[in-house]
Amino acid sequence: xxxxxxxxxxxxxxxxxxxxxxxxxxxxxxxDVLPVFEQAVPGDSRPRAAIDAAWTFVDGADRSRLxxxxxxxxxxxxxxxxxxxxxLAARSAGDAAAAAYLHPIAQGxxxxxxxxxxxxxxxxxxxEAGGDPAIGEAALDQSLRRATPVLxxxxxxxxxxxxxxxxxxRLMSALDRSxxxxxxKPSERVPVCGDDERGxxxxx
Length: 204
Fold this sequence. Notes:
Layout: H1 16-40, H2 46-58, H3 65-79, H4 84-98, H5 111-128, H6 133-146, H7 149-155, H8 167-181
């Protein structure tokens, strides 16, 4: 585990390896729901470009203007999307590219850069199941299993995510608390393969 450095203001440093772990976690969720956007808005490649940019960073390239530009473009695609699910899918793609630039500022709103795509994926699952909250909760369970110790270590450097009125905000808060509460318990998370496997789950 990397040595954490904090300033007098409570801010800290994030290593490039830690940023890659966070970005991998976000982009895997975003990639899962990308088809929802592409089916709703065929021909708009902006969210896919953001996901590709996120993987470029995860796979070892330096973060660059590529992640910033594609993130902005994906969020613009989200604003013009025709449905809640498509909007959330495009926004998740933008979040994936932006995760490379997660700010090491000890503020709860930064948690959204780590967990909002997970919560959005859970909400999309609910919407596609007719609004069934049990489906969203099952999706959060999958997100819990995907979280690595490094991801949780980074998360715990931030205050809890602020409460929000939207369903995505509530799902994110629930995931945030579950990850923190489970951090000291024996892990049941699935092992994760190396970078060349893009974080696919391995067979123990």
